[in-house]
Amino acid sequence: MPQAPINDTVTIHQLIDDPYPIYRRFRQETPVVHVKAVGRTMLTKAAHTRAVKDNPGLFSSDDPGTPQTLAFRTRTMMRKDGEEHMCERMAMAPALSPKNLKQIWVPGYEVLTEKYLDALPRGEVVDLFSLLAGPISGRKVADFCGLTQVSDDDMQRWCQTLIDAAGNFGWFQDLFDKADKVNDEVDAAVAQSIVRLQGADDQSALATMINAENPIPLSQIQANLKLAISGGVNESRDSMLTTIFGLLTNPDQLEEVKRTNGWGGAFEEAVRWVAPIQVSSRRVTEDTEIGGIDIPKDEVVMTVQASSNHDEELFDEPEKFNAFRRPNPHQSFGSGPHHCFGTHLARMTVGKTMLPLIFERFPNMQLVDPDTVKWTGFGFRGPLSMPVRLQ
Amino acid sequence: MTKIAFVTAGGSKTEVPAQDGDSLMQVALEHGIEEITAECGGAMMCSTCHVYIDDAWFAKVGAAPEEELDLLGFASCEVRDNSRLSCQVKVSSELDGMVVHLPESQV
């Protein structure tokens, strides 16, 4: 069978600026394609990305070439398979049980939302990115982790720095140096919290992990919290802003969402439309084929869920925001054993709590100018600002 | 071959052939039953393949074990006594003709 065609024209900057037209072309012409600029074979069709994620035996998460290991100073559970992965994931899972979600995290987030909305200035242009979505997402994750003493700003900076280093395929030393410093800060905060949480009746991720009958090693506890930070802050922020943007630029949909209480559907559509985490990687454990293309053992394939979410075979007019798209089989939370750990928390907090509350509080909220909202990012993607007028 | 009937909340029924040993979730995905989202693909992470086993068949399938019941706490529709995650129910010839009811939504 043929090898994957090689694309040497697309640049990393084009992918950062606007990958969607590129992915559309790939889906039509070369759905399995080796992209030189990222040094990976990209999978751009929904059926392929889903099949890869659902078959962890053939497509391993253990990628020895990932910059994430250096960025987090350890191999995290995201890069492990089977029992090893499950053991570390399950150590944190009780913190996000349905009971804790309903009794602790969602009610807590309702209180936070009211507080952050109260603090927004009226009658002027407000950037929801820096004054609402970023800080409240930092706060949510800090509280969930058990790092209650950490500021919103530090949480956001930690998330960004860890992400930048984990996706540092250019292997720039300065990004690892910055991450190193953040690792020190996180580890210090964890040590501080442990003193408070040891033996305490507390449902945070850290308390759950340290107070377990057979705790996992401290290095993995720290790694799990760094994953929660890097996978929870920016992604909550971006999904929130993207939903708000989608609804404000489609006022008819907004009215219908209000009338039908369709906030959950609007949130799902936003994460389909612009997936906060756009790509993932898997290492192939045996020679195989995908879509009629030979994929040799040890090749690392990149599943482009951002592209799968716009696959014309599954979605009509995928480039349009449609809060009433049903069904909406997007892959933004991934699938298989590494299905996003924070999925339920995100759906309940951003989707079902923040959205109705902000539109209830500011029914006449207006985007200053949709054209000034700039979107950016290849691995992670979202808007850089969201200036609105609040009345 | 074993046959399974999926019935939507609106009442429309689709009967499909099912391979013994496959999970109900796999059967649904193979036959394009859109009401089964099955986001995690059977890894017991997501609770988006929730179904209601028809009363006449429930005794054969049995109730959800504890771990599954915990996860059902994430289901978006009401969890009832006959609720199961379809990824955890294995097809066998014993279940030939079984009727499975689909909830209104999965997320």
From TrEMBL, chain A:
GO molecular function: heme binding; iron ion binding; monooxygenase activity; oxidoreductase activity, acting on paired donors, with incorporation or reduction of molecular oxygen
InterPro entries in the cross-refs: Cyt_P450 (IPR001128), Cyt_P450_B (IPR002397), Cyt_P450_CS (IPR017972), Cyt_P450_sf (IPR036396)
Protein's name according to its UniProt entry: Cytochrome P450
Keyword Acetylation: no
Superkingdom, natural source: Bacteria
Pfam families membership: p450
Family: Belongs to the cytochrome P450 family.
Keyword presence, Nucleotide-binding: no
SUPFAM superfamilies assigned: Cytochrome P450
Keywords: Heme, Iron, Metal-binding, Monooxygenase, Oxidoreductase
From TrEMBL, chain B:
An example Gene Ontology biological process: P450-containing electron transport chain
PROSITE patterns per the UniProt record, alphabetical: 2FE2S_FER_2 (PS51085), ADX (PS00814)
Limits of the 2Fe-2S ferredoxin-type domain: 2-106
SUPFAM superfamilies (UniProt xref): 2Fe-2S ferredoxin-like
Cofactor(s) essential for the protein: [2Fe-2S] cluster
CDD domains to which the protein is assigned, alphabetical: fer2
Coiled coil feature spans: none
One matching Pfam family: Fer2
InterPro entries: 2Fe-2S_ferredoxin-like_sf, 2Fe-2S_ferredoxin-type, Adrenodoxin-like, Adrenodoxin_Fe-S_BS, Beta-grasp_dom_sf
CC terms in the record's Gene Ontology section: cytosol
Key words, A-Z: 2Fe-2S, Iron, Iron-sulfur, Metal-binding
GO molecular function, one term: electron transfer activity
Family the entry assigns: Belongs to the adrenodoxin/putidaredoxin family.
The name this protein goes by in its record: Ferredoxin, 2Fe-2S
